[in-house]
Amino acid sequence: MVPRTDLNLLRVLLAIYETGNVTAAAKQLGISQPAASAALARLRLSLGDPLFIRSGARMEATPRALGVIGRTREVLEIIDRDILRGPQFDPSRTEHEFVLCLSEVGEIVFLPALFERLRRVAPKARLRTISLDPDALTENLHDGKVDAVLGYFPDLTDPHIYQQRLFSHDLTCMLREGHPLAGERLSLEDFCAADHLQVRDGSRRQEMFDAYLAGTGVRLNVVLKTAHYMSVPSLIEQSDLIVVLPRTVADLYAHSVNVQTIEPPIDIARYDLKQYWHARFQQDPRNVWFRRLITDVFAE
């Protein structure tokens, strides 16, 4: 019996049948003529049949060979089409629910544009966002329960987590229109003395800013702390509070409520926003397509 794993022998059998001789079969398969002859010899030994009988310039298949060839062609077509070629992905037809991990800021910054593009190129697809801690996130990426992570996640350090930088981001200040400190410039003295609103949403961005303040010796007069960004616009609009927050969020609020942005009087380092995925899905067609979509929408 032909060893189950030696599919190349079956390819030689089919090629000899189609071309009529060993030399032409070897050329079709891209192997040497001695290699094709050796494969035929192994097949004859395994099947206990000559398989081909020379008739003039051609080799004619025996009944045993014809019985094998019919199934061989079918099996090899299935292997080449469904296994070796790999799965295909058609965004126009997929109904897959893509799962994306975002912070609250990430949802404000990324989600509208991403969802709009997704609906345009994959109209039947669905999108779900979640928020997880780094340990749970690594596990869910490995298991395929999360397709990608988007934002500032410096704790995703597992060597099997791949990442791609999309663009750099920075922080700015926001205050209400008509605020006593509103103007073109904000002094460091006024900045420190002002009543500050601080958003502590659990993201590493705030920790980065806290570390920067500690390193420079700058102390802010924080009089109100909140865990969410949803209340920020109304709090700023109706008070003399000032808040430091991501520029894209501040710009968004400045277009919808009576607030304005002003540059902080300190040099706050920019930080990179990235997308992350697991090595297991590096070549997965659906994941590759989703990552390319994210790149097309957001990469600099």
From TrEMBL:
<dbReference type="InterPro" id="IPR036390">
    <property type="entry name" value="WH_DNA-bd_sf"/>
</dbReference>
<keyword id="KW-0238">DNA-binding</keyword>
<keyword id="KW-0804">Transcription</keyword>
<dbReference type="InterPro" id="IPR000847">
    <property type="entry name" value="LysR_HTH_N"/>
</dbReference>
<protein>
    <submittedName>
        <fullName>LysR family transcriptional regulator</fullName>
    </submittedName>
</protein>
<dbReference type="InterPro" id="IPR036388">
    <property type="entry name" value="WH-like_DNA-bd_sf"/>
</dbReference>
<feature type="domain" description="HTH lysR-type">
    <location>
        <begin position="5"/>
        <end position="62"/>
    </location>
</feature>
<dbReference type="Pfam" id="PF00126">
    <property type="entry name" value="HTH_1"/>
</dbReference>
<keyword id="KW-0805">Transcription regulation</keyword>
<dbReference type="GO" id="GO:0003700">
    <property type="term" value="F:DNA-binding transcription factor activity"/>
</dbReference>
<comment type="similarity">
    <text>Belongs to the LysR transcriptional regulatory family.</text>
</comment>
<dbReference type="InterPro" id="IPR050389">
    <property type="entry name" value="LysR-type_TF"/>
</dbReference>
<dbReference type="InterPro" id="IPR005119">
    <property type="entry name" value="LysR_subst-bd"/>
</dbReference>
<dbReference type="Pfam" id="PF03466">
    <property type="entry name" value="LysR_substrate"/>
</dbReference>
<dbReference type="GO" id="GO:0003677">
    <property type="term" value="F:DNA binding"/>
</dbReference>
